Structure formats: structure tokens, C-alpha cells
Amino acid sequence: MKDVRDALMVGHDSDGKLVRRPLSPHLQVYTPQLTSILSIMNRVTGIAISVGTLMMVWWLVAASQGPAAYATVSGFMRSPIGLFVLFGWTASLFYHFFGGIRHLTWDAGYGYDLPQTHASGWATVIATVVSTVLVWGAGLWMLRG
Amino acid sequence: MPEKITIDVMRSQLGRARGTGAAGSGVHHWYAERITSIALVPLTLWFIFAVLRLVGAPQEAVVEWAGHPVNATLLLALIGITFHHMQLGLQVVYEDYIKVKWLKDVTILGTKAAALLLGLLSSLAVLKMAMA
């Protein structure tokens, strides 16, 4: 073997023969917890809203192009797929927003105790749900009125 | 059939880590991600409320809104910081999961290029509405 990472995983068995030592337990053996789920959610939602920025770009470009282009993007946003994408984008954005504030608090050195971590975790989830529902309620109300 | 294992590597861990970048430029990347996220807190809130008021509005209303100097400025700031934050974050995801070096490098550079071009494209749209 040429790679020092592989070489570091080599040990001796009871006969003195070189063997590859087993890797540490892999992800699937751990019980999912609030902290681990929310941690990976921050990454997943970050990727989701990255894709969602394409909608923002399309919306801005269409608005600058004229009424016809804007009608196309508006039509897509009101289609079932468009509504689904927009809803996913909104929910992901709110999660990443509140989760990001949670991370910034940690970066500042606060909220590391387990009870605080759990409380801020649930607060993030609740804030995401409430904000998403409120924004969509307001948006749908705007479309009706 | 157990495999025959031989070790022919004499590099130390430190020697392997030196000069690969993480030890030299990680702090700036980490910091830039945090600074942009702080800036995005007020900008994102502003954008959500602004867009909410434009739901169902005609194209002319959107142009009028985006053309206002304050809104255009905030939009340009939002666009620039969003795409910068986005490519910083996606880069870390690739670094964690893509093991093949050339593929990782190509994906990171491709994402940076896409973020730059999408940022320029949407900025151009805002400027066009601001100058209209």
C-alpha cells in the first residue's frame, strides 16, 4: 500500500501477521437523534435552497425581460410542480435561516448544554413550521384577494 | 483467502497534510461563511416580506419595485452574498463526499463558475429594471 491513510489502519493479528484493522462504526449503526437529524437537515436544506436560487434568477430575469416572459414564470410558479418547488424552497429557506442563527449562536460560544441544544433544536423546527405556514397563508390570501 | 499486506509508505501524517490547503486557507473559508450568513439574516427577511407583497402582482409592479434605488441596492447585495455563501457551503459538501480528486476539483470549480454567472445574470436583470 502506498497511502499513509491505509498504512495507519494496519495492525498485527495474534500470529504477528499484518491485517487491516476494521473501520470505526459506520453511520447506520447510530440511533438517529434530534441533534444528528437537525445537523444533516441544515446541509440538506442548504443544497435545496441552492437549487431554489434558480427560481429567483428566473423570476428576476423574466421580470426584466417583459410581460410575456413574466407570464411564463408566473404560470410555472402556479402550476402543481411550481407550487411544490416554491413550497420546498420556502420551508428549506426558513429551516436554514433559523438553523443558521442557531449555528451562529454556537459559534459565538453559547447554547452548548444538552438541554439548551435540544430546546434550540425544537425551537428551530417550530419556527420553521410556523413561518412556512404564515408565509403561505399570506401568499394564498394575496392570490384570492 | 486473506490478502498479503505490505506497507511501502514513509510519509508522516504531517507531511501528507502540509501544503494541501486545508491547513492554510480553512479559517478564511469558515469565517466568510459566517460573515455572509450574518448579512443574509436581515437581507433574507427583507426579501421574503418584499416578495410576499408582490404575489399575484403584474410585471410592471415588479419592475417598479425592483427599480427603486433602495430595493435595487438591497437586491444586488442579496444576490452577491447569497451566491457567495452558496458556493462556500456547497464546496464543503463536495469536499466531504467526493473522494476522487479530479472530480471533486471539477465540481467545486464548476459550482463556483455557475454561482458567479448566475449572480451576474440576476444582477444584470436588477440593473436593467433599475435603469428602466
Strand order of the largest sheet of chain A: 1-2
Any idea of the CATH topology of chain A?
Answer: 3 helical TM bundles of succinate and fumarate reductases
Helix content of chain A: over 70%
Structural class of chain B: mainly alpha
Helix and strand content put the structural class of chain A at mainly alpha
Largest sheet composition of chain A: 2 strands, antiparallel
Assembly state of the chains shown: heterodimer
Strand content of chain A: under 5%
Number of helical elements of chain B: 5
Q: Tell me the count of domains of chain A.
A: 1
Contiguous runs where pLDDT drops below 50 for at least 5 residues of chain B = none
Calculate the terminal CA-CA distance of chain B, rounded to whole Å.
Answer: 75 Å
What is the CATH superfamily classification of chain A?
Fumarate reductase/succinate dehydrogenase, transmembrane subunit
Short description:
The complex is a heterodimer of chains A (145) and B (132). With 145 residues, chain A is mainly alpha-helical. Helix content of chain A is 74%, strand content 4%.
Q: Can you offer a commentary on this structure?
A:
The complex is a heterodimer of chains A (145) and B (132). Chain A has one domain: 3 helical TM bundles of succinate and fumarate reductases. Chain A has helices at 4-7, 34-65, 67-78, 80-107, 114-144, and strands at residues 10-12, 18-20. Chain A has 145 residues and is mainly α. Chain A contains five helices and two strands; from the N terminus they run αββαααα. In chain A, a hairpin with a 5-residue loop joins strand 1 (10-12) and strand 2. In chain A, 74% of the residues lie in helices and 4% in strands. Chain B has helices at residues 13-17, 22-53, 59-67, 69-97, 101-131. In chain B, helix 2 (22-53) packs across helix 4, helix 3 crosses helix 5 (101-131) and helix 4 (69-97) packs antiparallel against helix 5. Chain B is elongated, with a radius of gyration of 22 Å. The mean pLDDT of chain B is 91. Chain B has a single domain, classed as 3 helical TM bundles of succinate and fumarate reductases. In chain B, 80% of the residues lie in helices and 0% in strands. Chain B has 132 residues and is an all-alpha fold.
